[in-house]
Amino acid sequence: MSSPAAPSRTRGSRRHDLDHFLLRGRDTDVALVEGTTSLTYGALRSAVEVRAGQLLAQPAHDEPGPLLLEMAPHLPSVVTYLAALALHRPVLLVEPGESAAERRDEIMQRWAGPVHTHPDLALLLSTSGSTGSPKLVRLSRDNVLSNASAIADYLDLRPTDRGVTTLPLHYCYGLSVLHSHLAAGASVVLTDLSVADACFWDLAAGTGVTGLAGVPYTYELLEASGFADRDLPSLRYLTQAGGRMDPARVRSVAQLGQCRGFDLFVMYGQTEATARMAYLPPSLAATRPEAVGVAVPGGSLRIADPDRDGVGELVYAGPNVMMGYAVTTEDLARGAELTELRTGDRARLAPDGLVEIVGRSDRMAKVFGLRLDLDRLEQELASLDPGLRLVARGDVLHVFHTRHRVGERARRHLQRLTGLSASCVRAHRLDELPRTASGKVDDALLRRHLEESALHDLDATSPAEPPTPEGLRRLYATVLGRPDAGPDDSFVTLGGDSLCFVELSTRLGSVLGQLPREWPTMSVTELAGASRTSRWSRRWSAPLEIGVVLRALAILIVVITHVDLVLIPGGAHLLLAVAGYHLARFTLPTPGRGARTRRILTAVAAVAVPSSLWIGACALVTGDYRWTTAFYLNGARSYRAEGGLRWTLDWQFWFLEAIVWGFLAIAVLLAVPAVDRWHRARPFTVAAAVVAATTALRYASVGVQGEGVERYAVPSVLFVLALGWAAAEARTTWQRLAVLAASYAGLYGYFGDRQRELIVVGSVALLLWLRPVRLPTVLARPVQAVATASLWIYLTHWQVYPELEAAGRPLLAIGASLVVGVLAHALYQRVEPVVRARLRATGPSRVAPRRGRAEHPTAPRRPAG
After folding, report:
1. What does the DSSP 8-state code read for residue 293?
2. CATH number given to 368-442
């Protein structure tokens, strides 16, 4: 127990303290860079003096307590932080942004306000990570200074070095980058850009960044975004901490550095040690990637209570060991209580003197009396999925994975390793594992996901009960596979796509009674207040999005017409309009030009990949199709090879060719910065312009009336896709009338068949004006199933109906086409996650190292146009 705290120091300017503490650069050297603003050390000292005076002038008690500071990567936050340190006022750093408001309020109620603090106390950081613990880490001025100096020492930081805030500053690793560079007289670029953003690399190159810091997930993003091919001649070193990185990736990055002229420092630390406790010298990164290395300068490591294999708890001693934890405000007055830190990590000392971490003591679990080392088990399963995560809950061991067909293999392997029965091991596949601000897997969210899934069995709200924000949040979490879904998230910000749109819209309709037109961009909280239908109505009927109903109707029209039961032409063109409508509703509103482009490409892949696989397989087995059809080049090949367009079996898939090339054209168009800005400001105007351009292209391609297969060529049908886009963007009556007029103008004489033209025009009108259609529950389910499987029904019906039609069984042909398509869709759903995972691997992920929930802001409402 420490002795009673000394009285607080007199509140006043401590510029000399600050010079000694952090600001060690020469007055003329640059200290901080943000945008076009550069602050020299001299200017920064002056700014800190001014801010310190402002803090002193604020009304306060004699014991003002810790300063609660939203630590954003911007100059005002950094200057305020340094000013508080100069005044010897402890700073409690919290996450910035609206998404963290609830957590900040909780911290403010618990910690802010007049309270006596120890004179050595400088910094308070949360160590909740993925455990949800409310305690704070108490760090002294000596803790911060000694660790900053140690890091600057082994990184050999110089005044010419320039770091960048690739990690949040309220997180100890990100803050250590700021500390160590200022302590070395170097400079730091302040930005909230992610390494997944192309403009981040323009900034890094333009400002001459020499060092990048990252957690393991950062390096996954670097690899996915083509870091190996980037030209950054100023780069001198990379650092990695925040969790164990796969040794193969460590080796790969180290070898890349040897070729490109930068060093990789693999580091180990905890908030309780201010930041760093050990580092692996760069010369050993390629040969000893599994080790965390040696103690930082001024520190020491030892293995406590080793077993016969030399494995025990890793203990660190050094001047950067925290003063202790704070659980109540009274703890803020306590002095230093620790001389060494028991890390909770199990480690061994290798013969070459390097420390190797082999597991975490708090990753031990008991399932049916068996003591299980979850870290060791994860390592055993790493060959199946390196990102796999084990969570024990009660007497069940749960394995979360992101790769297809891993779950069952992982379950069987775990049974063999542990001796548990099959009922005690369960697998769950998620698109991505939720992560904390430090990039570590968020076990708390995974446990919450388990509780909600078990409690609600994927049905988050009973149709008979009024909807609540928490009930809808659980529904989003389970249907979209996003356990991190929050009340401020929407379908768009959570990355929803056409694969889950039908299911989620149907379930929401059964809960809310009436789906608002803008529900994809509305937050969960906003939707919870949108229910206006009686409990009885919600129980016995369900509203379906008009796009869902039209999709089911269109594919039914296609099959009925091809079977020759009743001639109702225009079904495929209707599907094309619905495709444009859905693209505009829940893909184009995606925040960020790069993120939106990736979402459109994902939508393309959702159509193109299964279609190519099916068409290619049919071409090999039956020989009915040419290879160009599987690559959506049938129209181009027909023009070139045959001197014109004539019907062949390859034209059966003209609709898919139009979607693929149409979506790609939209992605390219909106990737242009000027067009992107125009679209963000006036979405309807851009859609209307595209309608005008594609309609002109339609007339230029086929004239007033198309002949034969000309009506199915990509240049002549793109205007139908554009009409669906414009219908989704129309908000006012005049805009709707304009789209309806444009649809009539584009379709006039197009088919030479007034019935088909009116079917498509009428469908556009329905997209423009009708709200969701309420159907009896018994009918809503099959309509949903047919709509969801419409792509596979379209693909497979060509091989299903001909024989049955020839045998004089048209109704059976229709039924068989629908059933086979639905079954094919269900089968592909088991394969599709692999495709999506591989697509994510070819481009930056939409989830950067998480700065709380700031990566998923609620989509802003867009103007009407």
Report:
1. B
2. 3.30.300.30
Residue type, 865: G
pLDDT score for 9: 41
CA gap 526, 171 in Å, rounded? 31
Give the C-alpha separation, 833 to 827, whole Å. 12
C-alpha separations of 146 from 137, 152, 217, 245 in Å = 16, 10, 28, 26
| pLDDT tens figures, 101-110 | 767 777 888 8
H, E, C per residue of 497-537: CHHHHHHHHHHHHHHHCCCCCCHHHCCHHHHHCCCCCCHHH
Residues with Cβ within 8 Å of residue 229, at least 6 apart in sequence: none
Kindly give the residue spans of alpha helices, DSSP state H, lying in 131-197.
Answer: 141-154, 172-183
| The domain defined by 15-358 carries CATH number 3.40.50.2300 | no
Burial of 124 (0-12, 13-18, 19+ CB in 10 A): buried
In the chain, where are the structural domains located? 15-358, 368-442, 458-544, 546-841
Closest to 10 (Cα-Cα) out of 82, 62, 80: 62
With helix as H, strand as E and coil as C, how does 773-813 read? EEEEHHHHHHHHHHHHCHHHHHHHHHHHHHHHHHCCCHHHH
Q: pLDDT tens digit string along 115-170?
A: 889 999 999 998 744 333 468 999 999 999 999 999 999 999 999 999 999 999 99
Query: Residues 559, 814: contact at Cβ < 8 Å?
Result: yes
Please list, in sequence order, all residues whose beta carbon lies within 8 angstroms of the beta carbon of residue 707, skipping any fewer than 6 positions away. none
Answer positive or negative: Cα dihedral of 93, 98, 103, 109: positive
506-517 burial by CB neighbour count: b if 16+ within 10 A, else e? bbbbbbbbbbbe
The helix or strand, by DSSP H or E, that contains position 382, with its residue range, turns out to be: none
Q: How many residues in the chain?
A: 865
Question: What's 644-691 look like in SS3?
Answer: CCCCCHHHHHHHHHHHHHHHHHHHHHHCCHHHHHHHHHCHHHHHHHHH
Burial of 495 (0-12, 13-18, 19+ CB in 10 A): buried
Question: Is the pLDDT reported for residue 597 higher than 70?
Answer: yes
Other C-beta atoms closer than 10 Å to the C-beta of 544 total 25
Q: What's the pTM?
A: 0.52
pLDDT at 331 over 70: yes
Tokens 């309509």 label which residue?
A: 783
CB 602 within 8 A of CB 431: no
CA distances from 625 to 96, 460, 650, 792 (A): 57, 45, 5, 17
Q: Which fold has domain 458-544?
A: 1.10.1200
- Domains 15-358 and 368-442 are alike in CATH topology: no
How far is the CA of 854 from the CAs of 438, 481, 816, in angstroms?
A: 13, 19, 48
